[in-house]
Amino acid sequence: xxxxxxxxxxxxxxxxxxxxxxxxxxxxxxxxxxxxxxxxxxxxxxxxxxxxxxxxxxxxxxxxxxxxxxxxxxxxxxxxxxxxxxxxxxxxxxxxxxxxxxxxxxxxxxxxxxxxxxxxxxxxxxxxxxxxxxxxxxxxxxxxxxxxxxxxxxxxxxxxxxxxxxxxxxxxxxxxxxxxxxxxxxxxxxxxxxxxxxxxxxxxxxxxxxxxxxxxxxxxxxxxxxxxxxxxxxxxxxxxxxxxxxxxxxxxxxxxxxxxxxxxxxxxxxxxxxxxxxxxxxxxxxxxxxxxxxxxxxxxxxxxxxxxxxxxxxxxxxxxxxxxxxxxxxxxxxxxxxxxxxxxxxxxxxxxxxxxxxxxxxxxxxxxxxxxxxxxxxxxxxxxxxxxxxxxxxxxxxxxxxxxxxxxxxxxxxxxxxxxxxxxxxxxxxxxxxxxxxxxxxxxxxxxxxxxxxxxxxxxxxxxxxxxxxxxxxxxxxxxxxxxxxxxxxxxxxxxxxxxxxxxxxxxxxxxxxxxxxxxxxxxxxxxxxxxxxxxxxxxxxxxxxxxxxxxxxxxxxxxxxxxxxxxxxxxxxxxxxxxxxxxxxxxxxxxxxxxxxxxxxxxxxxxxxxxxxxxxxxxxxxxxxxxxxxxxxxxxxxxxxxxxxxxxxxxxxxxxxxxxxxxxxxxxxxxxxxxxxxxxxxxxxxxxxxxxxxxxxxxxxxxxxxxxxxxxxxxxxxxxxxxxxxxxxxxxxxxxxxxxxxxxxxxxxxxxxxxxxxxxxxxxxxxxxxxxxxxxxxxxxxxxxxxxxxxxxxxxxxxxxxxxxxxxxxxxxxxxxxxxxxxxxxxxxxxxxxxxxxxxxxxxxxxxxxxxxxxxxxxxxxxxxxxxxxxxxxxxxxxxxxxxxxxxxxxxxxxxxxxxxxxxxxxxxxxxxxxxxxxxxxxxxxxxxxxxxxxxxxxxxxxxxxxxxxxxxxxxxxxxxxxxxx
Amino acid sequence: xxxxxxxxxxxxxxxxxxxxxxxxxxxxxxxxxxxxxxxxxxxxxxxxxxxxxxxxxxxxxxxxxxxxxxxxxxxxxxxxxxxxxxxxxxxxxxxxxxxxxxxxxxxxxxxxxxxxxxxxxxxxxxxxxxxxxxxxxxxxxxxxxxxxxxxxxxxxxxxxxxxxxxxxxxxxxxxxxxxxxxxxxxxxxxxxxxxxxxxxxxxxxxxxxxxxxxxxxxxxxxxxxxxxxxxxxxxxxxxxxxxxxxxxxxxxxxxxxxxxxxxxxxxxxxxxxxxxxxxxxxxxxxxxxxxxxxxxxxx
Lengths: 967, 299
Hints:
The complex is a heterodimer.
Chain A: E1 2-7, E2 10-16, E3 20-25, E4 28-33, E5 39-44, E6 53-57, E7 65-70, E8 73-78, H1 79-84, E9 90-91, E10 96-101, E11 107-112, E12 116-121, E13 126-132, E14 139-146, E15 151-157, E16 162-166, E17 172-176, E18 183-188, E19 194-199, E20 203-208, E21 213-219, E22 225-234, E23 237-244, E24 249-255, E25 262-267, E26 275-281, E27 286-291, E28 296-300, E29 310-314, H2 316-323, E30 333-338, E31 342-347, E32 349-356, E33 359-370, E34 374-377, E35 383-386, E36 391-395, E37 400-404, E38 412-420, E39 423-430, E40 436-442, E41 445-452, E42 461-466, E43 473-477, E44 481-485, E45 495-498, E46 506-513, E47 518-523, E48 527-532, E49 538-544, E50 549-556, E51 559-566, E52 569-574, E53 579-585, E54 593-596, E55 604-609, E56 612-617, E57 626-628, E58 636-644, E59 647-654, E60 659-664, E61 670-676, E62 683-688, E63 693-698, E64 703-709, E65 713-719, E66 731-741, E67 744-754, E68 758-765, E69 770-778, E70 784-791, E71 795-801, E72 805-810, E73 818-821, E74 824-827, E75 842-848, E76 854-862, E77 865-872, E78 877-883, ...
Parallel strand pairs in A: 66-74
Antiparallel strand pairs in A: 1-85, 2-3, 3-4, 4-5, 6-7, 7-8, 8-9, 10-11, 11-12, 12-13, 14-15, 15-16, 16-17, 18-19, 19-20, 20-21, 22-23, 23-24, 24-25, 26-27, 27-28, 28-57, 29-56, 30-31, 31-32, 32-33, 34-35, 35-36, 36-37, 38-39, 39-40, 40-41, 42-43, 43-44, 44-45, 46-47, 47-48, 48-49, 50-51, 51-52, ...
Chain B: H1 3-9, H2 11-19, H3 26-36, E1 44-48, H4 54-63, E2 72-77, E3 87-91, H5 97-106, E4 112-117, H6 127-148, E5 149-160, H7 165-172, E6 176-184, E7 193-201, H8 217-222, E8 247-250, H9 285-292
Parallel strand pairs in B: 1-2, 1-4, 2-3, 4-5, 6-8
Antiparallel strand pairs in B: 5-7, 6-7
């Protein structure tokens, strides 16, 4: 078994020469070039331990000396040794908190968790001496600062605040009291004059190490703070980067004589829980963080100073002054359009203003555009201004044209614009049920006009796109409606779909594929989807964000980006990589605003706040936003794989309540595609029904059926309605078996087991897209953990529970709904929706095999017998033979097959079984004799689940690891 | 999670409030006792990391069932604890040698029959670190136990069954006749928590416990020769023996509740019971207050 891929908590990050990032990814040391994102080397350093810290000595990569530590172990190596994998693991005998080189690089000082410093001779790799200040209390954190005249030790205790002592004379210099609770993070300034600290009390404190006084305090994190980094040091001033359990990194500014450590910026670039590590690239002004999600992200700490960065605002008085125009007392800037290089705005008194190169000018005043006007435009720079009467001003570069949009009756209510292949389209809507008018504008004049019948009933246009090749038009409306006009016929009649996604207003539509009209649809109320609408509407992809309002979305380099408002901020979010790219406090969504995305930074946001027009343009990016993408930010509870034309699709369900769909490549790499947020509670199980469908289950009785589309999209297809009005039970596991009708697959049976001991069988019909409850029963009073369906001459339900029992039921035929014969199930009657459903027909076997919970089992059926392998919380395994005909279960139990809970059991082939256990071991056993064939340590803690994908084994827990295996 | 939804989900939490236990962990000790008869013929008992005191409550109620008991129970914690009948509470540090003297003084110089610890650290979520700190906490309790326990005495402590728990099993095997990993049914199956039950204390021959403040827990055990790795001149990685302790599930299947199961409430709960012991002030109390008042500014 060979590890080929891992993703999990990133616990160590160190910047070297302001150019390279050394990252601890599990036991692997990975080196990146920061500005290009290029990975230079990835090498395992420790056999078991995760890397918790890295120090680098030297002035050049090729002559650098590295000191890497994790747990009780240490590695000292030269760059060449890292490249060659020539690494010795050394032992310090206690958990290392920090290690730093002496100024000449000859000695490494290691501070361990009992407040002792161990000095090591780097060249000879030998112990020099150990020193302590006499107080050997346990530390959560500590840091060393090697100064020209001394080595300073800062120790963060559990109960007694911070102990600062000098290595040279072993004397305590300061006892810094002020924090409440355990100290979790410490960092000194380079000159050793200042110390910053954080603790369980969620504050950050700055201490003067000369006087021992607390000089400043900062508050802001909503949860525990884990680490701090001091940067941008000047005389009496510096900045701090902090990382927290609240998923954010924050920056702070300290200035001597200010008692407040001032909060500056907030970055949210991880998911799940905890940002474990961080580093600052001081010269480039970049903050780098590593999360529990395994992601390493780069935040620009100096974004506002980058090329192109603008952050400015104009009051109406300032605009008046610049333009020389006089504004009425009640006059406001009502509408504007950003062409990407200039802003055209209309006021409530008919003034048209232009902002170009930071200067406002008055373009014209036209009283026809008082009170109501709409300002829209195109990427080409052409801007349109319309009023209710259909007067349309076309503003080009230095010239103005005018058009009249004629209505039989009624007035204009909305105008939308789209630029496609350089062509300019306008969609105009009337207040009445008059047809929509689609105009194309070229060289400032209308070159074509089409009438599109307005869909009957409630319809108010909110977004549209045009497919230039076919002339098809996709229009989104309020009231969650989508209308599609195909071809060129006049007047075009729409196909209309209402409530195809949850929510109200469609905020944006973008056609992705011409032939099929594959379209990205974003709904204001957090939902988004990809639909195909050339024929019948087909939902390919559905998902939602958890907070805020979505105003739009677009694809860039294969990543989906979404933007909108969340409380008082505007955000831009990379949905594929799961990180926030922009956060701007603007006061919230109920205001005039305009957003245009850039490609490499250069995002433009205009918004009105307190009647001032604000402009924020982000500076050019100097480094990629992610050096490595992550996966789940909390424990993965279940994993399943399904073969595709290019490898496998991997589905993972996690404690973080998300279901992730990723691509598992042939070489074992995991490339995230979607992070589905439909579940409201931590996941329990995910399994495939077949190559198109999979099911997930969680607490609150949630059982969700998902459909995969085109090997790249996933949509929530159907959910099972909870049986109780206030569902409290967890759906622990389920199993599916396909059901035929007239010789063809018509649906499947789904057996689900619950934490209140319920067992339910549902029939799902593909045609009707419904779940019908066909059998319902209660096993005992304990929690049922796993279930499998076996179909022979009858439907059998095999289940395992927390009482250590394996139970076998004959399920019956659902009161004549099914015909079971020769290992197949046929649907012979329509399952009714009934208040009373049959119980399981008969409990055949209920036998205790394990002392406590059977955490997992797998079975293989051969004729009328099944081989069942179980793994338990009692560290034991059992191999059983279940004879369905004779109704007999014979079992061989082996105790202590692991030193902790066996969490998953997966049969691989006829005579091997693979297990995962919380002792972080993956083992392969021969069955039925249960002989250990091979075992492999995994870096994934809380090891909880596994699945096979060809010759790959995917192991999930607090992270995910992929092994190649010979089977 | 609100009080009442926890009531519905967690049967032991609910039961603890109804029966007057300060924490649901009381049932864990009751079930351990049910299995191992831990409280038979014990006179001097030490409960370490005792706050809020549910284990001391159990010890007090069970040991003093027959009124003529001459037993003595000492409960030690850094946090203050509300008084419990027949229990002497000590607010003290278990790593401090003076704590040992105080306990021995209470016992009139006699040694203890039973030492237990239900202590857990500030769990961070980093599994390797949390497991290491928990192991250190067990060693801390064990250090005091080796000074306090009479030959043949019993030691019970909470453990996290992680990747290195087999090291601890092996090392405890040098000090006790029998080392068992016990999981009461009151402890959730999804939790890594279990309890190490060490029966029949065998002091190491030729080794005298020497509780000095300048020795770390690690150093205290160094010369005990129980197979713990240590720091060498050449920094070599010691081989450390790993052993799997036998597993015992505690709590009768038929009579005890399953902490993983969801139970419907027997009666309609119209109001939720308050916890027996309100939680103490958390270190982040001020941060919470600031948040409520909108003073935690972000950007």
